[in-house]
Design a protein that fits this description.
Distance between the termini of chain A: 41 Å
Oligomer: heterodimer
Largest interface: A-B, 35 and 32 residues
Strand order of the largest sheet of chain A: 2-1-3-4-8-7
Number of strands of chain A: 8
Number of strands of chain B: 6
Strand content of chain B: 15-25%
CATH topology of chain A: Rossmann fold
Shape of chain B: globular
Largest sheet of chain A: 6 strands, parallel
Shape of chain A: globular
Largest sheet of chain B: 6 strands, parallel
Number of helices of chain A: 8
Mean pLDDT of chain B: 95
CATH class of chain A: Alpha Beta
Distance between the termini of chain B: 11 Å
Order of helices and strands of chain A: HEHEHEHHEEEHEHEH
Helix content of chain B: 40-55%
Structural class of chain A: alpha/beta
Number of domains of chain A: 1
Radius of gyration of chain A: 15 Å
Chain lengths: ~200, ~180
């Protein structure tokens, strides 16, 4: 099982110009490690649609790898997205499910099917050509150059320890830069960084 | 339907999308929108992305806009009702100038029976077997969610309406809808 630091610190170390989209319990931890204009916190709640949003960025910018750090509860809300990813033909998409078995930011209520779900099997069944599962930090860290550079789409299931992240807000006192402004304001920062206008 | 069997109206709608700079069309097909989906599945522009649910389409379109593309979402009113938080938590919060077309199941019957979007939606009315309740709920939902919209009547010109939708969304810098009561074929 990985700690949140063991999950995110190697990713931050290997990341260069990739887009990184976060949601739920990794939003703040990632924002403490990274202050890149190509980070995007899908943290205004959209009932699990972060993986869809990230796929849209990937389709708009096939020249750039898009990494989505999705929650397990969020993934369950939109399992159809696995099929949409394959149908879309995107190859520059790395979808990482951060599996802690719970709705962490609301107090660790268990997700449905906890203990019997196999997200990697679901991704294989949907047609993902590259599927990986990591539950210890060494193999995860070693795999990152390949995960970030090899065309996919790639699906990664990571087994992580629960933490105590509370509900996410957008306010100037948030430690993460991408949470200090509104989603509308950050969208313009992000678009400018991608050369997509403001 | 092959490209050379498209009706003039379908062909004109597609040309309007291309001329308006639309890069991607996203959604779930229904009987009204099927001619557009069929045509785009054989064409290269705009690119078609079929989703498994309508909320997915709005979130995906928001990501496309973030990346610099110009998407359009095409859904039935039933699917529009499904998409609430996906639309609110992405395009609405971002101020994405996202145009979307909502095809209108149940409107012909609703209108024929003398009801409209402002008819009080009593429990008895919503249970009537001769009415499709989705028609009763569509426009009140658009208003409740703060979505600016225009309606293209069954005998209206969808080509002109789609062109105006694209202009409206860019001017408003907000998700903007066209409620399409007629056919795209």
């Amino acid at each position: 099982m990985l700690t949140r630091a063991q999950l995110l610190e190697p990713l931050a170390a290997h990341r260069t110009d990739e887009v990184v989209v976060t949601t739920m319990s990794v939003t703040r931890p990632w924002g403490r490690l990274s202050s890149h204009d190509l980070d995007f916190a899908s943290a205004d709640s959209a009932m699990g649609h972060t993986a869809d949003l990230a796929l849209g960025v990937a389709l708009a910018r096939p020249d750039r790898m898009v990494v989505c750090l999705n929650g397990d509860g969020s993934m369950l809300m939109t399992l159809g997205t696995l099929a949409t990813v394959i149908g879309s033909g995107a190859t520059n998409y790395l979808l990482i499910v951060v599996e802690n078995g719970s709705y962490e930011i609301t107090g660790h209520q268990p997700i449905p099917g906890r203990g019997s779900l196999d997200f990697a099997a679901m991704a294989r069944g949907a047609g993902f050509p590259r599927v990986f599962r990591f539950d210890e930090p060494v193999a995860w860290a070693r795999s990152l150059p390949d995960l970030l550079r090899t065309p996919g789409p790639t699906f990664v299931q990571t087994i992580v320890e629960p933490t105590a992240e509370g509900p996410i807000s957008r306010r100037p006192t948030e430690p993460s830069r991408y949470l200090q402004v509104s989603l509308a304001d950050w969208a313009r920062v992000f678009r400018k960084a991608l050369g997509a206008g403001v | 339907m092959s490209a050379n069997t498209l009706t003039p109206r379908t062909r004109a709608v597609l040309a309007t999308l291309v001329d308006g700079g639309v890069t991607h069309v996203l959604g779930v097909p229904d009987n009204t929108s099927a001619p557009i989906f069929d045509a785009l599945s054989r064409d290269t522009a705009p690119r078609l992305v079929i989703t498994t649910r309508e909320g997915e389409a709005f979130a995906l379109a928001s990501g496309l806009w973030l990346g610099g593309a110009s998407p359009l979402v095409l859904v039935q009113n039933t699917g529009f009702l499904e998409s609430g938080d996906g639309l609110r938590g992405t395009a609405v919060r971002m101020g994405a100038p996202l145009p979307f077309i909502v095809t209108a199941r149940g409107y012909a019957r609703m209108t024929a029976l003398g009801f409209g979007p402002d008819t009080p939606r009593t429990p008895e009315l919503l249970r009537r077997p001769d009415l499709d309740s989705v028609a009763l709920m569509t426009e009140p939902t658009l208003r409740a969610w703060g979505i600016p919209y225009r309606t293209c009547a069954a005998d209206g010109d969808p080509v002109e309406a789609v062109a105006r939708l694209l202009t409206d969304a860019r001017a408003l810098q907000h998700p903007t809808a066209l409620l399409l009561l007629g056919s795209l074929a």
